[in-house]
Structure formats: structure tokens, C-alpha cells
Specification:
Elements: H1 17-23, H2 25-37, H3 40-48, H4 52-79, H5 88-107, H6 116-143, H7 145-148, H8 157-183, H9 190-215, H10 235-243, H11 245-263, H12 266-276, H13 281-309, H14 311-335, H15 352-373, H16 375-390, H17 395-410, H18 412-423, H19 439-464, H20 471-491
Helix pairs in contact: 1-8, 1-9, 2-8, 2-9, 3-4, 4-6, 4-17, 4-18, 5-6, 5-9, 6-17, 8-13, 11-16, 11-17, 11-18, 11-19, 12-19, 13-14, 13-15, 14-15, 14-19, 16-17, 16-20
């Protein structure tokens, strides 16, 4: 299936562009489930019957569970290299687990006897299995990067496809959420989750199949490692975390970003538009307007920065731009009049507030797309660095080690949001469509939407100061790995 044009040339192996684009859909396949799970607190509080803080705690503990399973699944991936490759089996199995367990969570739980404890316990057990499937598929997004291509010009292109897909996905889903909320008179309705599942599950499965086809010819041992079989044990996780400065700094950077971005839950968006601006429908309308310019800016930024300056500098510039844009957006919400975004008929009005919001959101989306999406191919750089440093090819270890710490830290996000809303009086139910405005609601929502993001991006700047993998260093690493492979091939 491989085209010889893209085989190795001086230690560099490439891949047709369409395969990079096709494989990027593996991440989109899991992200669409992630979007659906953003509304799980409404299901737990409004349908299962648990308290807000309990629902928020559930999300935190499930993400911790997700992180705890990562190293073990990564270990299995590193040990796997059979007839169907190292990565493909985990993509398919993971997605099928997501499909089945998500159906059971939302369509079976509420049919159990009307006992909150029983329903909640059942939901927890099924969710634990769900997150195992989620990890199966997610680990491949990172682990397969190093075998997909090691060309420093090609590798960042994954971020363009990934960024475009995620921008389009979350824009469409953001437009869908208000429509479902209006249709069912709030998000805490089983109809919302039924419709979400019928959309999410088949699309995710189709994306997974495309990704499997795309990675097929490169899911081969001749495209990764040194060509020499190296035994990997669980203790290598500690050795890698202790000795690989690149993955240490990438974990600090990405996990604080994820914590910040995860704190901006669906409830935060609802509060800003339904309670502060007075029109939840504007959220979807404005997302639709900003998505295409944001995508174009993302492509231009990654195309100009990551492929020419290297991935480290691209993340640095993206983080600085994100800080400035978020600070401006926070000031806009705090001191501007958001209600001017609506006209007398409830439609979108092009007020000064609206224009500033659109412009700043597009700018932030472009910079955030660089700093956020470049993380995945940077993980592949860290895996290559480990081969260079120790001779061990452990992409599963690298990806899940990264995910483990990332998820433990970012698991605090729903808990932070839940506690902040509970502190201003929302202990038994989250703010929903129809909740009246208050200054406290605005301050909490603005901090969760923009203030905490600024803190996360500042952590990026600190971490990148100590991140060793510059564009020049990666060229040295690929050359050394090619020499090791050539030497091993000559000896055997």
C-alpha cells in the first residue's frame, strides 16, 4: 500500500498528505465523545438526581481513573506489534467500547429503579469501562505520530488538520447545543442525550475507520524505533519521566492548558450567553461566524510558524498571543454591555460589543489553535528524543505518560467550576436557561472562561524556557537515529 516516493530518504520517511489528514480524524473521533460528555453534569443532576458538587466530583474522579489506566494501556501498546500492527487494533476496539458504553450510560441508567444511589453506582461502573475505551483510542493519536512521519516539515501538518477538524466540530456542536436546549426546554432532559448519541456515535465510528485506513501502511516496525528490538518494562515509565526533560516540560505546558480550557465547561458558555448576554442562541450563531476565519488563521499560523520556526517557537508565539487575546476578552465581558449583542427580535445585532467579541475570538482561536494543537506532534518529537537518548522506542509509554499526568491535573477542572458555582449559591442545580443575571455569575464565568486560561498560558512560557527540542536539535536527533538504524541493518 505504501508509495515508494514517500519511503525513507536519508533517515526521513514521509507520507502522502491525505494520510496525515485522514489519521487526524482519530483524534476528532474521540473529541466528539468528549463534547457529549461535557453535558454529563446535566444528566447526573437533572436525571439521575445527584447534587452539583457530587456531579462535578464524578467528572474529576473519572478523569483520574482515565489517567490511572493510561500507563498500563500504553505498556500494552508498546508490547503489541502483530499481524494488524501496533496501533490499529486499539483504535477499533477503543471506539467500539465508546459506542456501546455511552449508549448504556445514557439510555439504560435512567430506566433503572428510581433510586439515586443505585443509578449513580451503575453510571460509575459503566463510565469506568467507557474511559478504558477512550484511552485505547486516544493513546494511538500520540503513539502513532512517530511512525506516521518524522519529516520536521510534515509532522506539524497534523496540527493543521486536527485544528481545522476540531474547530469545525466544536463549532457545529456549539450551534447544536442551544437548539437542543430550546427544543427540550433545558439541557437536563433525556431527549438531549438521545439525540446527541445518535449523532456522535456513528460519526465517530466513520472517522475511526478512515483513520485506520490512513495509518495502515505506516503501522509497520520499519517506520519506527531503531530497528532493534528493545525490551520495555514498567520501570521504564519512571526512568523516562525522570530523565526526559522534553516530556517533563511538555506535560507541564499541556496539562495546565488543558486544566484551563476544561474549566470553560458548557455551563460557563451557557452562563455568559444565557445569563449575562440574555440570549443563549447567540452562542451558536457567533460560533458559526467565527469558525471559518479562526480555521483560516490557524492554518496560516501553523503553516508559517511550525513548519519554518519549529514546534517549540510556534507554541511560544501561540501562548503569548493567547494571553493578550484572553485578557482583552475578559475586559470586554467585565466592562462591556453584552446585552447589546441582541436586537429587538432576539437575533444577532452588530454592536460594538459584538464586533469586538468576534474579532478577539478569531484572534484567540488562531493563537490557541497553535499552542493547543501542536502538542500532539510535539509528543512524537519527545518519543524520538527518547530513542536518541536511551535507544528505546516507547511511543505508548510516551503518549500515556503524558496523558496520565495531563489528566490528573486537568481532572480538577470540573471540580473547580462546580465549587465556584456552588460558592455563589448553585449547590443543588447548575445555572441553566432562565437563570437570572447576577454580578457573581458574571465574575465566575469570566474567570473560568478567560482568567484561568491566561494562567495556563503563562505556565507555557515558563515550561518552554526549559524545553530542549528546538528545530535544530530535532534535525540532529533524526540524523543520529538514521545512523543507528543503518548500523544495525548492516550488522544484521
Amino acid at each position: 500500500m505504501a508509495n515508494s516516493k514517500y519511503d525513507r530518504e536519508g533517515g526521513i520517511h514521509r507520507v502522502p498528505l491525505w494520510r496525515i489528514g485522514g489519521f487526524a480524524l482519530n483524534n476528532t473521533a474521540t473529541n466528539i465523545y468528549l463534547f457529549m460528555m461535557n453535558f454529563v453534569a446535566y444528566y447526573l443532576t437533572g436525571i439521575v438526581g445527584v447534587a452539583v458538587v457530587t456531579a462535578s466530583s464524578f467528572s474529576m474522579f473519572m478523569r483520574i481513573w482515565d489517567g490511572v489506566t493510561d500507563p498500563f494501556i500504553g505498556y500494552v501498546v508498546d508490547k503489541t506489534n502483530g499481524k494488524f500492527g501496533k496501533n490499529r487494533p486499539f483504535m477499533l476496539i477503543g471506539n467500539l467500547i465508546l459506542l456501546v458504553t455511552s449508549f448504556i450510560m445514557f439510555q439504560v441508567t435512567y430506566r433503572l429503579p428510581e433510586n439515586t444511589a443505585v443509578r449513580f453506582a451503575f453510571f460509575i461502573v459503566i463510565s469506568a469501562i467507557y474511559y478504558i475505551g477512550y484511552t485505547f483510542q486516544c493513546v494511538v493519536t500520540k503513539s502513532a505520530q512517530s511512525c506516521l512521519t518524522n519529516d520536521p516539515v510534515q509532522r506539524p501538518l497534523f496540527s493543521i488538520f486536527d485544528g481545522v477538524y476540531n474547530t469545525v466540530l466544536f463549532s457545529l456542536m456549539a450551534m447544536l447545543a442551544p437548539k437542543l436546549g430550546a427544543k427540550y426546554h433545558g439541557m437536563a432532559n433525556i431527549g438531549v442525550f438521545t439525540e446527541l448519541w445518535t449523532i456522535v456515535a456513528p460519526i465517530s465510528l466513520c472517522f475511526t475507520i478512515i483513520a485506520i485506513i490512513s495509518i495502515w501502511p505506516k503501522d509497520n516496525s520499519k517506520y519506527f524505533g531503531t530497528g532493534k528490538a528493545v525490551k520495555v518494562s514498567l520501570k521504564d515509565y519512571w526512568e523516562t519521566l525522570k530523565g526526559n526533560r522534553a516530556i517533563q516540560m511538555l506535560v507541564v505546558s499541556a496539562s495546565t492548558d488543558k486544566l484551563a480550557m476544561s474549566a470553560k465547561t458548557s455551563t460557563v458558555t451557557l452562563v455568559l450567553f444565557a445569563c449575562v448576554a440574555g440570549n443563549y442562541g447567540l452562542s451558536g450563531a457567533l460560533t458559526g461566524i467565527t469558525s471559518i476565519p479562526t480555521t483560516i488563521l490557524l492554518i496560516l499560523f501553523i503553516g508559517s510558524m511550525a513548519t519554518t520556526l519549529g514546534q517549540r517557537k510556534a507554541m511560544l508565539i501561540g501562548s503569548i498571543g493567547g494571553i493578550v487575546a484572553n485578557a482583552a476578552l475578559a475586559c470586554l465581558w467585565l466592562f462591556g454591555d453584552a446585552t447589546t449583542m441582541s436586537n429587538a427580535n432576539g437575533g444577532l445585532a452588530w454592536s460594538a460589543f459584538t464586533i469586538m467579541y468576534v474579532v478577539l475570538t478569531i484572534i484567540f482561536g488562531g493563537f490557541q489553535g497553535v499552542s493547543g494543537n501542536i502538542v500532539i506532534p510535539m509528543t512524537a518529537d519527545c518519543a524520538d528524543y527518547e530513542v536518541y537518548r536511551t535507544g528505546k522506542y516507547v511511543p505508548g509509554l510516551m503518549g500515556t505518560l503524558f496523558s496520565f499526568v495531563d489528566k490528573l491535573i486537568s481532572s480538577l477542572a470540573p471540580m473547580i467550576a462546580g465549587l465556584m458555582f456552588a460558592a455563589i449559591g448553585f449547590k443543588d442545580a447548575l445555572p441553566d436557561i432562565g437563570t437570572p443575571y447576577s454580578d457573581e455569575l458574571k465574575y465566575v464565568a469570566v474567570f473560568l472562561a478567560h482568567g484561568i486560561v491566561i494562567l495556563g498560558l503563562i505556565c507555557n512560557l515558563v515550561a518552554l524556557k526549559f524545553y530542549p527540542l528546538t528545530k535544530e536539535k530535532m534535525a540532529e536527533i533524526q540524523g543520529e537515529i538514521a545512523s543507528i538504524k543503518a548500523k544495525y541493518a548492516a550488522e544484521n
